[in-house]
């Protein structure tokens, strides 16, 4: 029975990944942890550091962004775009959707400007557009209780998704998949099914570390993660499910049975990240570096604070099981 259900579960995952390209990347915020906006040189440095990351064979060549707008501006194109062109980094674009229509107009405007200003050099790099990031999670009682900040109602998101489709119609971005990134719990919530209907793909965020109502020790983490992926696939109306955020913290408070440590982050990488990459799932790890300065907690960074190119990886990023057969 157990075997049968796990076979069925893997079949479900396979259906969801058939048409995927195996993009591998990290999530990149628009500003440093002291609120200073990232400039083109900063993004470029980060994209190059990801590409040169020891143990990964130069495979981390994609970047997920949260916004099209340069931080602290109204509608200036984010400087990550020029940095991506200079480093040939593919892009999962993000449109920030939790600050109301006026702010979203800035996202649309920056998207249109980028298409005009950079043309094919930009549009060829785009692998998808996510309208929103965890907006549906942030309107839930759990997030409100945790002080998660404003989100967006399903009807609002539908509106933004349609506005984005209108904005790219007739441009070189028409036909690029438009999705939405949210927690797996938001996707399996039936009240959000109308949003899923509007999407080309779902971007799933899942963190067993934070799943404190479940058995969430590192020993169970692979199972817990894939259960959430399978549940999302079942809710996905046949659409592909990308993994847009997952990770295990190196530093942080214990959450139920989940212990933050470099050793456990390594186990999570080997089990979850390496298996997703082996399956060819589009995959964006959280994250390359949490902070340049200070001591954030939790800290999910593969790199600790300091100069990205100089500080060593906190844990081994090779996928031993996969490369075993190649040596
Ligand atoms: C389910 O989704 C609806 C609409 O997004 C939201 O209002 C509600 O809080 C969610 N329920 C839970 C238990 O998260
Ligand atoms: C984690 O689970 C996935 C899906 O069931 C599986 O393919 C992978 O081999 C597992 N990894 C380990 C280390 O058990």
TrEMBL record:
Topology with respect to the bilayer: Lipid-anchor; GPI-anchor
GO cellular component: cell surface; extracellular region; fungal-type cell wall; plasma membrane; side of membrane
E.C. code: 3.2.1.39
GO biological process: cell wall organization; polysaccharide catabolic process
Superkingdom classification of source: Eukaryota
Keywords annotated in UniProt: Carbohydrate metabolism, Cell membrane, Cell wall, Cell wall biogenesis/degradation, Glycoprotein, GPI-anchor, Hydrolase, Lipoprotein, Membrane, Polysaccharide degradation, Secreted, Signal
SUPFAM superfamilies in UniProt: (Trans)glycosidases
Signal sequence annotation: 1-19
Subcellular location(s) of the protein: Cell membrane; Secreted, Cell wall
Main location as per UniProt: membrane
Catalytic reaction list: Hydrolysis of (1->3)-beta-D-glucosidic linkages in (1->3)-beta-D-glucans
Entries under Pfam families matching the protein: Glyco_hydro_17 (PF00332)
GO MF terms held by the record: glucan endo-1,3-beta-D-glucosidase activity
Alphabetized PANTHER family for the sequence: GLUCAN 1,3-BETA-GLUCOSIDASE, GLUCAN ENDO-1,3-BETA-GLUCOSIDASE EGLC-RELATED
Task of the protein: Glucanases play a role in cell expansion during growth, in cell-cell fusion during mating, and in spore release during sporulation. This enzyme may be involved in beta-glucan degradation and also function biosynthetically as a transglycosylase.
Family stated for the protein in its record: Belongs to the glycosyl hydrolase 17 family.
Protein name: Probable glucan endo-1,3-beta-glucosidase eglC
Organism encoding this protein: Sporormia fimetaria CBS 119925
């Amino acid at each position: 029975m157990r075997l049968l259900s796990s076979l069925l579960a893997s079949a479900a995952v396979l259906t969801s990944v058939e048409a995927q390209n195996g993009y591998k990347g990290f999530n990149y915020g628009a500003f440093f942890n002291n609120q200073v906006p990232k400039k083109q040189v900063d993004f470029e440095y980060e994209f190059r550091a990801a590409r040169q990351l020891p143990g990964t064979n130069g495979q981390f060549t994609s970047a997920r962004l949260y916004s099209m707008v340069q931080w602290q501006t109204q509608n200036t194109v984010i400087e990550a775009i020029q940095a991506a062109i200079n480093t040939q980094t593919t892009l999962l674009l993000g449109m920030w959707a939790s600050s109301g229509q006026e702010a979203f107009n800035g996202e649309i405007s920056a998207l249109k400007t980028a298409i005009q200003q950079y043309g094919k050099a930009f549009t060829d790099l785009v692998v998808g557009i996510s309208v929103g990031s965890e907006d549906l999670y942030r309107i839930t009682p759990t997030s409100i209780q945790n002080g998660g900040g404003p989100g967006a109602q399903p009807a609002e998101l539908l509106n933004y998704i349609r506005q984005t489709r209108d904005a790219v119609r007739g441009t070189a971005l028409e036909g690029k998949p438009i999705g939405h990134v949210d927690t797996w719990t938001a996707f399996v919530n039936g009240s959000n099914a109308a949003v899923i209907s509007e999407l080309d793909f779902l971007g799933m965020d899942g963190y067993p570390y934070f799943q404190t109502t479940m058995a969430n020790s590192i020993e169970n983490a692979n199972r817990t993660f894939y259960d959430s992926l399978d549940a999302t696939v079942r809710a996905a109306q046949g659409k592909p499910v990308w993994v847009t955020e997952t990770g295990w913290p190196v530093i942080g408070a214990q959450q139920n049975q989940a212990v933050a440590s470099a050793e456990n982050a390594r186990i999570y990488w080997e089990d979850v990240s390496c298996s997703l990459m082996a399956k060819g799932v589009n995959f964006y790890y959280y994250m390359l570096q949490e902070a340049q300065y200070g001591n954030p907690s939790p800290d999910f960074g593969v790199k600790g604070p300091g100069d990205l190119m100089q500080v060593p990886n906190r844990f081994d990023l090779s996928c031993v099981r996969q490369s075993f057969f190649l040596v």
